[in-house]
Specification:
CATH class of the largest domain: Alpha Beta
Strand content: 15-25%
Strand order of the largest sheet: 1-2-3-4-5-6
Number of domains: 2
Number of helices: 9
Shape: globular
CATH superfamily of the largest domain: Ribonuclease Z/Hydroxyacylglutathione hydrolase-like
Order of helices and strands: EEEHEHHEEEEEEEEHEHHEHHH
Bound molecules: zinc ion
Radius of gyration: 18 Å
Oligomer: single chain
Number of strands: 14
Distance between the termini: 39 Å
Helix content: 25-40%
């Protein structure tokens, strides 16, 4: 299965999956028609599916146009069915989809929105986490609460460590600055932050990332880390209290 990742809108990523053997061609979300249509045309692909993660406009903007052009099936979160343009089929946490012989496990990742889902391809070792888990960050909590978002991140963190993670946005540079503010002595983070600056200077993507790397450097997956806790003055707090504090500091950063 080939994976094409490309910028859309201001800071979104579009992703097209293509498996020549089965004819499976899927767009992970549909942030913007033009760049998606360009990739499909360039690679001579006919879209068979859109895998929608959540209802925000910058993730569903091109659903209707792509469906009109390609007749693709749109799969999306059951809890947001009424808000997903063109949705044909719903999926919820724990579902296992068999889409043109591809096994896809659906992981509920609420918090950013109440119904957001991630799509995990266990045989390929890749997960599309949209606006739940970012490189060095996590999604803003718009509809849920911190406990929900922490559960979502724990579900993703339970995947194998070598899992490749694709996310909905290129936020990594600003996430790195925040991460350094709460975890300034983490050698892995310092090294990664330098690499990220170089990549972004050349306008190269910092995604996909891996779970291994996130566990070493993403503060939102490191709530039990003694150095982060000491920095926050929260040595005896619960992980959820630390997570809540990190998220609210990031909102004000
Ligand atoms: Zn969103």
């Amino acid at each position: 299965m080939k994976i094409y990742q490309f910028p859309c809108r201001e800071d979104n990523y579009g992703v097209i999956l293509s498996d020549p053997d089965s004819g499976f061609v899927a767009s992970i979300d549909a942030p913007e028609l033009e760049p998606i249509a360009d990739v499909l045309e360039d690679k001579r692909l006919k879209l068979t599916h859109i895998l929608t993660t959540h209802h925000h406009g910058d993730h569903v903007a091109a659903n209707a146009a792509l469906k009109a052009q390609h007749g693709c099936e749109i799969i999306g979160p059951a809890k947001e069915e009424s808000k997903i343009p063109g949705i044909d089929r719903t999926a919820d946490h724990g579902d296992v989809l068999d889409v043109q012989s591809h096994r896809i496990e659906v992981i509920g990742t609420p918090g950013h929105t109440l119904g957001q889902i991630a799509y995990y391809f266990p045989l390929k070792g890749v997960v599309f986490a949209a606006d739940a888990l970012f490189a060095l960050g996590c999604g803003r909590i718009f509809e849920g609460d911190a406990a929900m978002m922490q559960t979502a991140l724990q579900r993703l963190a339970a995947l194998p460590d070598d899992t490749k993670i694709y996310a909905g946005h290129e936020y990594t540079l600003s996430n790195a600055r925040f991460a350094l503010s709460v975890d300034p002595t983490n050698e892995s983070l310092l090294k990664r932050a330098r690499e990220i600056e170089l990549l972004r200077d050349e306008q190269k993507p910092t995604l996909p990332t891996t779970l291994t790397l996130e566990k070493q450097t993403n503060p939102f997956l490191r709530c039990s880390d003694p150095a982060i806790r000491a920095n926050l003055g929260m040595e005896t707090a619960t992980d959820l209290e630390v997570f809540t504090e990190l998220r609210s500091r990031k909102d004000r950063f």
